Amino acid sequence: MKKNIIWKGTSLHDLKSLPKQVREAAGFQLDRLLSGVPPLLWRSLSFIDPHLKEMQLLICGDYRLFYLDRVDHLAAISQTIPFIPHFRECIYILHVCQYESDEQLQQQLEKVRHQLRTLFFPESSVV
């Protein structure tokens, strides 16, 4: 069963603003991901969320795409929040950026954390 992609925040706009070669590489890697095959270069960001991953695209520079590929751990609370069961069928793209430095990456991870908060707790998005 092929999954769907849900783009959060400005992630789709950010991806579309990247060079053509980067967009094509991202499309290829996302197609792999949608088919159940992991991207070629990725790492887990389990220190933020158990299902959060970072895809690395080394085309015309160093670009990162942050995504959730499973949210099964939310099944326990799905009775109280009706939209949660749909998460298991989707890949959520939270953020897309160009990697420039470790300091800049920390700022990008804060944006990812914010997207996670607004995804799971929309009413607290002002935090």
Give the number of DSSP strands.
Answer: 5
Rg computed from alpha carbons, rounded to a whole number of angstroms: 14 Å
Order of helices and strands: EHHEEEEH
Distance between the termini: 36 Å
The count of helical stretches stands at 3
Structural class: alpha+beta
Topology-level CATH name: YaeB-like fold
Helix content: 25-40%
Strand order of the largest sheet: 1-5-4-3-2
Average pLDDT: 82
The rough form would be described as: globular
Please mark out the parts with pLDDT under 50 across 5 or more consecutive residues, or reply none.
73-86
Main pleated-sheet profile: 5 strands, mixed
CATH architecture type: 2-Layer Sandwich
Query: How many discrete domains?
Result: 1
Residues in β-strands, percent: 15-25%
CATH uppermost class: Alpha Beta
Outline the structure in words.
The protein has 127 residues and is of the alpha+beta class. The protein has one domain: RelE-like (YaeB-like fold). 31% of the residues lie in helices and 22% in strands. It contains three helices and five strands. Strands 1-5-4-3-2 form a five-stranded mixed beta sheet. 24% of the residues are buried. About 11% of the residues have low confidence.
Topology:
Blueprint (H helix, E strand, L loop, with lengths): L3 E4 L3 H6 L3 H15 L7 E3 L7 E6 L5 E6 L21 E9 L3 H19 L7
Parallel strand pairs: 1-5
Antiparallel strand pairs: 2-3, 3-4, 4-5
Q: Brief overview, please?
A:
With 127 residues, this protein is α+β, with helices and mostly antiparallel strands.
Search tags:
single chain, 127 residues, alpha+beta, YaeB-like fold, 5-stranded mixed β-sheet, 3 helices, 31% helix, globular
